[in-house]
């Protein structure tokens, strides 16, 4: 007769693995503080492996491979994902000049989204036409889905994506 692995007693190593999985999930924001504490109590009180499994079975795998996979997924979304949601209206300034858009407090138009660089893009007026240029931002600037490579004109109705922040140019 073979022993059921779920009925086996919990070893110290099993508990440590479960605590590590809980700690990493809490750190990544997958578990609230209250959920983390209640599951930690289950791990501490567990007598059998099946009790441990109930505390960690819905968590993603812990370890180097899982972190690498999560990092790749985040990179993929930053690089190829299209911004969604309702765009903010961007009203072009009435006076010609140069206006910097970014997260920095010194920018003329400040956006708080983390995907926007500190100094992301600049609007300039050239012969009465508003132009936008990317300032070497990390997540790029797009107009109507096309990534900017050079200074590009803006027209009302254009959709400007700065990282994951979406703006619609109005009047």
Automatic annotation (TrEMBL):
Q: Does the keyword Phosphoprotein apply?
A: yes
- Note the CDD domains from the entry: FHA (cd00060)
Record keyword Phosphoprotein present:
yes
Keyword vocabulary terms for this entry: Phosphoprotein
Q: Which InterPro entries match?
A: Cell_Proc_Reg/RNA_Proc, DUF1707_SHOCT-like, FHA_dom, SMAD_FHA_dom_sf
**All copies of domain FHA, residue ranges:** 99-148
The name under which this protein is listed is FHA domain-containing protein
